[in-house]
Amino acid sequence: MNIHTKYHGEVEMDEILTFEKGIPGFAEEKQFALLPLSDDESYYVLQSVSTPGLAFVLTNPFQFMTAYDFQLEDAAVEELSLESERDVAVYTILTVQDPFEKTTANLQAPIIINLKNRKAKQVILHNEQYKTKHPIFQKAEAKG
């Protein structure tokens, strides 16, 4: 399947992710492609298959917050048909800033992907320790 993308022009995609209920704020958008944005695959683009201008920049939250931990509700596990933790990929949507060092991640609403069946869902966590605008680059401590 050829899709038109926001950042990559036209690309051939075989593996499409299905968000059965869409993404919050974009309920009608159900099919997305996950494309690498950086050569080192630290950043990705979650590209709508039907709307070329709709794309989200993602990253693996464990790259900048190793203690990131949450429990999926049973309804989400069932909706995604998850059988094992090995089948799960977790990403967070970034709000890209200029300069890039001010970029933040939405840890309150991660993207969960079942790697086996390509079902995906943005899950809203009910954990107040995670913010919607968490800095992904920590400032160096000032020495004094």
From TrEMBL:
HAMAP family: FliW (MF_01185). This is Flagellar assembly factor FliW. The keyword DNA damage does not apply. Keywords: Bacterial flagellum biogenesis, Cell projection, Chaperone, Cilium, Cytoplasm, Flagellum, Translation regulation. Acts as an anti-CsrA protein, binds CsrA and prevents it from repressing translation of its target genes, one of which is flagellin. Binds to flagellin and participates in the assembly of the flagellum. Pfam families: FliW. InterPro entries: Flagellar_assembly_factor_FliW, Flagellar_assmbl_FliW_dom_sf. Belongs to the FliW family. SUPFAM superfamilies: BH3618-like. It is found in: Cytoplasm. GO terms for cellular component: cytoplasm. Interacts with translational regulator CsrA and flagellin(s). One of its GO terms (biological process) is regulation of translation. The keyword Cytoplasm applies. It comes from the Bacteria.
